Amino acid sequence: MKKTYIISLFTLIFLFIAPPVEAQRGFIHRKIKNKIRKDMEEKYAEPEREKGKKALEDITYENDTRYPVPENPVKATLVMQMQSFKKNGKLDDTNTTKMVFGETGECMIMNEGDKDETRMLFDYKGAATYMVNENEKTAMKMPMINFQKMAEKIAESQGDIDDDNGQWERTNEQKEINGYNCRKYIYLNPKEDTKMYAWVTQDISIDLSGNHLFGGQIRDFATETASNTPSKMDENFPRGMMVRSIYFNKKSDKPSMITDITTFKKSSDPKYFDLSDYEINDILGKL
Hints:
Elements: H1 2-17, H2 20-58, E1 76-85, E2 91-101, E3 105-110, E4 118-123, E5 128-133, E6 138-143, H3 147-157, E7 167-177, E8 180-189, E9 194-201, H4 230-233, E10 241-248, E11 255-265, E12 279-282
């Protein structure tokens, strides 16, 4: 802040004591600069603003066909516990997320039952997203814009295990995790400096890829083995559903995140998709 103040003060002093010819040059320079800025705004900024305004005007729930209802919706309920760790290996945070997949959409519930419970309901049939406040019985309705990209970014932040530079190793280590018989697989990607342990079970299997958002990020390797991609034909490639994933900090044996599937059911409660008792506030009505 002090450095910025000194530079600004020096600039003001220089303008006041500069010779007339320098002042004229500065004036001409500013005029040219302002003219260029104005021309650039007229050429680029205004059209972009108009484009954005037009896009907002075109948004309706009826004409948004990007997220159709899956032809064969798969009902399921998964509860996932995520633990994040500090670089020194100590536990930083723990949170629980329930993912409910119904006939017409997905619902993600964070920290269900807690005072800070939050919900996101993705209604494919109505082409709408709802931010639900369970305690206040209110829901903010909005179009389903770029939520798929958001889901993909979340998945990417945990590492891309489909990278061609990565390699899987099947181990003989087995144990029971959350009631499921699991085998340990190790994923290494030297180029990305990525290491992950995957505990995979063949006790359960489900294909949620028909969902557009978070369902498409749930990895069930058993449904992928039919692919003729060489890496997936490798005997080291996991067979089954990943019950636990352990991601490690780069150049470290300390975990950065551990994710567990603690509950799995091939059914879903319709109450998570029923907003009849909630006060709905439509964000489009406020534009």
